């Protein structure tokens, strides 16, 4: 019984890996059809800690020209700090605000964290 379950699970994993590879080829083909998008992704990947998938997510963002200030761009990306203070005695450590794009925030969290440590 154990080996048949293990084989079934391994088949599911293999199927998922095949589907992931097909989707990655499709995404790469789409990017290759748009030179501007490909150039943007390559430029984003130059940033330390940013890989191919993070660059794709960032490339989906609106142009920075659409924002008047860096604070607006940061808020849209969901990376602005949230400060908590209650009166004069209770002050908690700042953290990332949950307003903004969750997808972009998740993609940029580790690269931004790693860049602070360098």
Q: Structural class, judged by helices and strands?
A: mainly alpha
Report the major sheet: 2 strands, antiparallel
Q: Average pLDDT value?
A: 84
How much helix, percentage-wise, in residues?
A: 55-70%
State the shape. Answer: flat
Strand content: 5-15%
Q: What's the tally of helices?
A: 5
Number of strands: 2
The side-by-side strand order for the widest beta sheet comes to 1-2
H/E order of the elements?
HHHHEEH
Q: How far apart lie the N and C ends?
A: 51 Å
Ranges where pLDDT stays below 50 over 5 or more residues in a row are none
Please state the CA-atom Rg, rounded to the nearest Å: 20 Å
Organism: Trichonephila clavata (Joro spider)
Protein name: DEDD_Tnp_IS110 domain-containing protein
Domain Transposase IS116/IS110/IS902 C-terminal: 43-112
GO molecular function: DNA binding; transposase activity
Describe this structure in words.
It is a single chain. The chain has 118 residues and is mainly alpha-helical. The chain is built from 5 helices and 2 strands, in the order ααααββα. Helix 2 packs across helix 3. The mean pLDDT is 84.
Fill in the keyword field for this structure.
mainly alpha; 5 helices; two-stranded antiparallel sheet; 118 residues
In short:
The protein is mainly α. The chain has helices at residues 2-32, 35-44, 52-59, 70-77, 102-117, and strands spanning 81-86, 90-96. One of its GO terms (molecular function) is DNA binding.
Indicate the topology.
Layout: H1 2-32, H2 35-44, H3 52-59, H4 70-77, E1 81-86, E2 90-96, H5 102-117
Antiparallel strand pairs: 1-2
